[in-house]
Specification:
By secondary structure, the protein is α+β, with helices and mostly antiparallel strands. The chain is 40% helix and 29% strand. It has a 5-stranded antiparallel β-sheet with strand order 2-3-1-4-5. Helix 3 (60-80) runs antiparallel to helix 4.
Length: 115
């Protein structure tokens, strides 16, 4: 299995505390690198994650599904607090998923139906 990579982009409207709550959960499975990107006059905080070697060796599919569920849990917690989930995820060879508008199954699908 090739090393999975994921791009997570957060709007600056999402607080650092809210971003960190998701990223802390994902650090168990992903090596994370934060970069700042400006697109169409909107500042995005982008985080590139690569599946850790240990996670790939010890049940790669299990790790990938856990990443999807951690993202779903974070998004649902944000909605419960009436906060916007103005964030998106992208995996190579997949479309961008808008976390504010997508369904849980779409998040699972982007991880499990990779080429």
């Amino acid at each position: 299995m090739e090393k999975m990579q994921i791009l997570i982009e957060f709007s600056k409207s999402i607080s650092k505390e809210d971003r960190e709550s998701l990223l802390l959960d994902l650090k168990e499975y992903l090596e994370l690198t934060e970069i700042k990107v400006k697109q169409f006059n909107v500042d995005w905080i982008s985080v590139i994650g690569a599946l850790k070697d240990g996670a790939a060796i010890v049940g790669g599919l299990y790790s990938i599904i856990n990443i999807a569920y951690k993202i779903i849990t974070w998004r649902n917690a944000m909605k419960t607090k009436n906060k916007s989930c103005n964030a998106r995820i992208k995996i190579p060879e997949s479309s961008i998923i808008d976390l504010d508008a997508c369904k849980d199954q779409e998040i699972i699908d982007i991880f499990t139906q990779r080429k």
